Amino acid sequence: MLDLSSIAVFIPRAVVQGIPLLYGATGEILTEKSGNLNLGIPGIMYVGAISGVMGAHFYEQSAGGQLAALPAILIPLLCSLIGSGIMGLIYCFLTVTLRANQNVTGLALTTFGVGFGNFFGASLVKLTGSETASISLGATSAFFCAKLPFADKLGWFGKIFLSYGFLAYLAIIIALVAAFILKKTRLGLHLRAVGENPATADAAGINVVRYKYGATVIGSMIAGLGGLYYVLDYINGVWSNNGFGDRGWLAIALVIFAVWRPNIGILASILFGGLYIFSSYNNTGMDLAANELYKMLPYVVTIVVLIIVSARKKKENQPPESLGLAYFREER
Amino acid sequence: MGEKTAAVKMRDITKSFGKVLANDKVWLDIYRGEILALLGENGSGKTTLMNMLSGIYFPDEGQIYIDGKEVVIRSPKDAFNYGIGMIHQHFKLVDVLTAAENIVLGLPGKLDLKEASRKIREICETYGFSVDPDQKIYTMSVSQKQTVEIVKVLYRGADILILDEPTAVLTPQETDKLFAVLKNMRDDGKAIVIITHKMHEVEELSDRVAVLRHGQFVGDMLTKDTNAQEMTNMMVGHAVTLNIDRPEPKDPKPRIEVKGLTVRDMDGIVKLEDVSFTANSGEILGIAGISGSGQKELLEAIAGLQPVESGSISYIEGDGAREELIGKDPLAIAALGVSLSFVPEDRLGMGLVGNMDLSDNMMLRSFRRGRSLFTDRKAPHKLAENVVEELEVSTPSVSTPVRRLSGGNVQKVLVGREIASAPTVLLTAYAVRGLDINSSYTIYDLINRQKQDGVAVIYVGEDLDVLLELCDRILVLCGGKVSGIVDGRGAKKRDVGMMMTRLGGGRNER
Question: Which residue in B17, B88, B104 is closest to A332 by CB distance?
């Protein structure tokens, strides 16, 4: 089974499975670096997906079959960014401005986001009068799925490295840029300080509220792109309710697995993607129970990493110190 | 001083938190080339006043003038722009970042750590510090962290420096070094404010003193024209005696005997090594040492909270009967009359629950008593009222959450509860941590009363001057070993200070 051609089949499948997780994890890492533990990520990815779907749907309707490349890409992209960005804003308003409990707010947003997605998903299905319980956006999806040139001509190299839609490459670029910003720039240094010790950052003249809002909203937008990628590229533009599954939680687990480093997140997401589809490569066939066991693997791996990291107690690998805590300057 | 213009003038500064008036029309002048000591009891508004100068709080009313010009300081950033830098009591440093990263935090421009490191070394040379720019903060000792804080404000070009109780966490030797540096900076023309309530430091270091009481400005004067007694009276508002009582021990008999005690922490690091001593009834045994030398482990081992590797701890009853404490349940040890009151740095961490009120906190000691299904609420309530009355705890009522009380009052509640359980051995650590003179003396009185009642008191303290005045004997710990046991009546501060650092292989001392 371990010959080159089957690897060339397995890796691209692991990658496309991992890209939504990478978006979610990169977004959550930026958010957590500001000290906000946003458990709303699953809901936000859902909203990112359905917002893009709605944008694409209405553009397809108004264009009547003749889609131009630029708006067909930009409209869903913008809709997705706006949708998930608003979710991030709601989260910030509640936890930063009103200092509500972060866990409760996040979980509420997840519940809300999934409901929001399913409500508008079902409404769209009703609008189109489709016979199945799903909507298909094949025309828009074609633009999102477009592979790089030469992908089919370069054999295994083309399959492993060139056979993805542009959002997949964007995910990796965003992760690398995020890693660079966190590590090498003043912006990143300030963001890390805010998440570690907001009182210190504040005393150093850093605007804590602005950083928290900025990192959380941008993080939410990045996470939302993961939802968009899933619908418009991974499953070729077919929206069906609850189709996104538990990928949002997996993205949050990935943050821990990657010890809060977006660059590690790139490889880790592909590994998670591989583990996620591992079952279908092991001929479990109809043994659904075994299938579920395989689906557990990413979580098991995350727990193992948590144990190792906690046992080693290396300060650099711990979560940001003030993660989950609201900050108020004049608190006594 | 008439011809000098004030670097900072604060006029009619008022600030309130809810109903509490922290500062009430305060006037203060700060001059360049001068060290000003800002004195006051806990809760007198010293830190609040300085926080307004450094942009942490914003005054409700009043004006601030810098070099004669009226300014508005809205944020720490504004404060830096006016050359004001504050070194807080709780360090404002990010643990996982390096010294250099912490120092450049919040500054604009491109991130160039190499250039920053060069500038840091330059500052260190000028004033005689030593800081490794690439060292991570969490690997540093307290005094190293403080140095980083000072370099941080100098790096930003501050020429008005405010230090909030800088010596609270330092050894005598480190304090001397800090004072030397501060004097260097003063001679360099910088304005320096130090907040403190240690009189001897004021006398040793400052050129001028300003006193606050209950949020109001009482007065200022040149240090050389005043003395400790006068300053204390100004702080407290009435005459107080500055001597700590030390009654002769009455009929001391061995109560706790520790032999060859060795303790390792969870990581397997030796915290106590071959510690032996005897604590007598009717006597106060002081424990001195740099923080983290094993004081906490020692008390916890006696109270049964800390696993012991080897050695013995015997409890000796009045009739000479011995009982081995190691291996005993903490509850059984407490039942013998061994009572532990440990005041941690955050004051609430051990022993009291911040969100519960006074009587519920009293109940934490007594809830096991009685056989009824329901707890007895009346007795703790009464005890709380007694403690409030006897120790003059200032609280709206006994049903106020402990979190809302000021530090001194919290400590009174903690110590009061322990004493109320009529112990035979009282273990107390940092009982006066961060307390002002008046509250400290109340606590000393309480401890002395216990001693006279024949209780064996083990008192872990930070302030050597107090240990030397209060304790009958002092055990000096150094890196987990007994460096020596001296008689409190004859010992010299210098000698005890040396004993604190002599062992331990330079781990805490550079």
Answer: B17
Strand-pair partners of B16: B21
Q: Which of B470, B432, B433 is nearest to B448 (CA)?
A: B470
| Residue burial B467-486, b: 16+ Cβ < 10 Å; e: rest | bbbbbbbbbbbbbbbbbbbb
pLDDT on residue A23: 97
Residue B306, min C-alpha distance to chain A (Å): 21
CA distance A277 to A295: 8
Pairing verdict, β B191-196 and B338-342 = unpaired
> Is the pLDDT reported for residue B3 higher than 60?
no
* Beta carbons within 8 Å of B238's beta carbon, 6+ residues apart: none
**The CATH number of the domain covering residues in B252-337+423-510:** 3.40.50.300
Interface of B with A in 335-364 (CB under 8 A): none
Q: How many CB atoms lie within 10 A of CB A46?
A: 32
Contact B95 A321 (CB under 8 A): yes
Domain ranges of chain B: 6-236, 252-337+423-510, 349-422
Q: Is B137 on the interface with A (CB under 8 A)?
A: no
* Residues B333 and B303 sit within 8 Å (Cβ to Cβ): yes
Q: What is the CATH number of domain B6-236?
A: 3.40.50.300
Contacts of A318 in chain B (CB under 8 A): 96
By the 8 A CB rule, do B278 and B256 touch? yes
* Domain coordinates in residue numbering, chain A: 11-62+69-147+156-317
The pLDDT of A33-37, averaged and rounded, is 95
For residue A25, the model assigns a pLDDT of 97
| Segment holding B160, helix H or strand E | strand B160-164
| B114 shares contact with chain A (CB less than 8 Å) | no
**Rounded average pLDDT over B338-357:** 69
**How far is it, in rounded angstroms, from Cα A125 to Cα A140?**
17
Cβ-Cβ pairs closer than 8 A, A with B, add up to 70
With beta carbons less than 8 A apart as the criterion, state whether A76 and A69 touch.
Answer: no
B97 touches chain A (CB under 8 A): yes
Q: Domain A11-62+69-147+156-317, what architecture?
A: Orthogonal Bundle (1.10)
Q: Which of A3, A45, A24 is nearest to A254 (CA)?
A: A24
- Do the Cβ atoms of B58 and B249 come closer than 8 Å? no
Report the 10 Å Cβ neighbour count for B228: 13
Neighbours of B323 (CB within 10 A): 13
